[in-house]
Design a protein that fits this description.
With about 425 residues, the protein is α+β, with helices and mostly antiparallel strands. It has 15 helices and 16 strands. The protein folds into two domains: about 20-170 and about 230-315, Bira Bifunctional Protein, Domain 2 (BirA Bifunctional Protein, domain 2); about 330-420, Rossmann fold. The chain is about 35% helix and about 20% strand. It starts with 17 loop residues before the first helix and ends with a helix.
């Protein structure tokens, strides 16, 4: 047993799970291609201040979860805990505002948060992320929601439910937050310690509290939809109108605030049936002030993030089987050193012809080579020995019915292609 073990909250993705990942990533690629989104990749490491300023000091991510360290140059760095701030930094730094708007981008990759590991939530997890930059129209909000809806439908999720809310903007949010503070301050003695801290640092986060003692207070808490400015109220009304035009059912949930400070106006979550308490599979919203906060021009944006590990768990829970991995369907076996040299060359010839083939190394017995072919699930085993080499042929065994056929070596690629 090795003395080295995985770090708590990290995981190995082994062979049995890889077909799920392949299936999910293929569906993601098909979906973003359908909607015309372009891929962007940003570094795993960023300056810590990017997230402290963008995500917000009162958030759990900044207060409790970020992996922070000083590098050898004395700079404070962070492993990225989320995608949006880094993508907006790339947008400003690389002058992407010169491209036609709206700019539609997507990415996927690892994020890092030091939080309590649980099912579907790891300290390193992989997220699929969508961003649309440069457009205020709530029709774009609907597009982002529709993209997520298409993806989850194609993955096989059912009973999808959309929950929406508005978090206002810098013009109306401060007055609403003050009303929240007044309301919860009157019940401060009832609040658990974590929510008392949120009351001081980030009152909106109380609406997202999972504390049992706080739940009864949420029913009568002020609702931001009653305190929106004219601009935000109009934006939210149009969003609902466009969703109704699509006949996309939705529920207004005033408790949705999302966990990051940069959200403005639209916020949303999508849930699916059959997943128990872990039924939220997507969450996102607008961040119209974030780019300006990071030093760019005032530029609206909207996006969502969704964890791929959660997709895998959901697919398993729902009994959805992904397509099997396309392993090679041909093996090349040999008897003797002369045949081995021909087998090595033949395997590479088949690869060049686009035929999946696996050469069996190690000078194993003929019986062991055929066992390996059966374990692989191959359809054909090519057998080479002295007699075959001398005749310029190979014996091809059909592993489904054990029949054997002699085929000229030069004809093998075409012969196999016809039968595979």
């Amino acid at each position: 047993m090795t003395k080295y073990k995985r770090i708590t909250g990290m995981r190995d993705v082994l062979f049995d799970d890889q077909p799920y990942w392949r299936f999910i990533l293929n569906q993601i690629q098909k979906t973003v291609d359908l909607f015309g989104y372009r891929r962007i990749d940003t570094p795993v490491l960023e300056q810590a201040g990017l997230f402290i300023r963008g995500v917000g000091e009162g958030t759990d991510i900044v207060e409790k979860e970020m992996y922070l360290f000083d590098d050898r140059d004395g700079d404070q760095l962070a492993l990225r805990p989320e995608f949006t701030a880094g993508i907006m930094r790339a947008y400003v730094e690389n002058g992407l505002h010169t491209l036609p708007t709206p700019l539609r981008v997507w990415t996927t990759g690892p994020l890092f948060r030091h939080e309590r590991p649980q099912a579907g939530r790891y300290r390193q997890h992989t997220q699929f992320d969508i961003e649309v930059i440069g457009e205020q129209d709530p029709a774009v909000d609907v597009e982002v929601i529709n993209l997520a809806w298409h993806l989850f439908t194609n993955l096989g999720f059912f009973g999808l439910r959309l929950y929406i809310n508005s978090t206002g903007c810098p013009n109306c949010k401060p007055a609403y937050i003050q009303k929240l503070v007044e309301y919860f301050s009157a019940h401060k003695d009832t609040l658990p310690p974590d929510d008392q801290m949120r009351l001081q640092k980030n009152p909106l986060r109380i609406l997202d509290s999972k504390e049992a003692a706080t739940q009864p207070l949420l029913a009568n808490a002020p609702r931001i939809t009653d305190h929106l400015c004219d601009e935000c109220d109009n934006h939210f009304s149009r969003l609902k109108t466009y969703l109704q035009a699509l006949e996309r059912p939705f529920t207004v949930d005033y408790k949705i605030v999302r966990g990051l400070d940069y959200y403005t106006k639209t916020v949303f979550e999508i849930k699916a049936d059959g997943l128990g308490s872990q039924d939220t599979i997507c969450g996102g919203g607008r961040y119209d002030g974030l780019i300006q906060e990071l030093g760019g021009r005032p530029t609206p944006g909207i996006g969502f993030g969704s964890g791929i590990e959660r997709y895998v768990i959901a697919l398993k829970h729902l009994g959805i089987e992904p397509p099997a991995e396309p392993l090679p369907r041909v093996t090349v076996s040999y008897l003797g050193e002369a045949a081995k040299k021909v087998a090595i060359k033949l395997a590479e010839t088949l690869h060049g012809a686009g035929i999946g083939a696996q050469f069996t190394p190690g000078d194993r017995s003929f019986k062991a080579q055929l066992k390996a072919a059966n374990r692989l699930g191959a359809s054909f085993a090519i057998i080479l020995g002295d007699d075959e080499i001398q005749a310029g042929q190979a014996t091809v065994r059909n592993l489904n019915d054990s029949s054997q056929t002699a085929v000229n070596l030069a004809d093998l690629p075409d012969w196999l292609a016809e039968r595979l």
